[in-house]
Amino acid sequence: MTDPAATAEPLIADLPFQCSVPGRPGQGSFPLVLAPDRSGSLQEQVAASADKLLAVLEGCGAILFRGFQDNGVQGFHEVMEALPLPAFTYDESLSNAVRRNRTDRVFTANEAPPELEIFLHHEMAQTPCFPRYLFFYCEKAPETGGATPLCRSDHLLARLEQQLPEFIDRCRRLGVTYTHTMPGAPDEGSGQGRSWRDTLAVADRDLAEKKLQSLGYQWLWQGDDELRVTTPPLPAVSATPSGEGVFFNQLVAAYAGWQHRPEDAGRMLSFGDGSAMPRPALEQLVATAYSEVYDHAWRPGDVIVIDNLRVMHGRRPFTGSRSVLAGLAVASRHGVPGQA
Ligand SMILES: [Fe+2]
To answer: Distance, CA 110 to ligand 1 centroid (Å)?
Structure first.
């Protein structure tokens, strides 16, 4: 198979930026780092080379813009507007994280407490509708920690095919279902604390049930106004538009990170036929994913754009008042398990 990073090299040479790659040897152009080589704001330079940037991103999965004048939240908003990618708004998403809007396209990254690790995930891969692209902007760097780990899921899939062939075969054929419990009111102490009213954008239980039914979910009301939901089978292996396989799912974060009630232990993740996922395979998966990670240490003004289909992200614990803002683009839908 051709390495998409290699096919992107001629395009990279054509970009009006200074280019470098900080990743470990053997990781390809990941992430690609672009610095200014002419005057003009980042948003102007992105607008002037938008199509080329998207073509390069298709191959490398993540681009870091560093060393440009920091034009704040509004500047970040304009960088997103400079690419021909329609916004995916947080309000319309089924994200389970608590966030706050700063502009109509910019919101805070997960508000979970700083001591919590947010494990590697593809944004909203556990819901039927997910954003194809993800943007981050560093408004304020943390005192310590707080890096954003990035992991290429095409590389991860290739390694897992060797390590766990049977598990990956079942993932491909059957897909996965996710079960989690949503509180009645937002819980900012949790990485998955968005209330069912906010998540589903509904005011009452009848409307919640109608929405879940339309999405193919199963549900159960629990004490204290909680709603336990199970998704329909979603693919665990997908493909990029150019046909590369990607391990696009939420298994790492759900297994390693989702907080759950004791009664939900071992039931949060199942293959699409309802059978249990073996713990040793999930442990191996988490270890392999983290062995592939590039940890991005933020500087104020950094902007990263991520192809959410190819690259997972997370958040390391930190101290200080880290502010990394996010934006999403291009609403996308899962295919059917077994057809990637
Ligand atoms: Fe995220």
So the answer is: 7
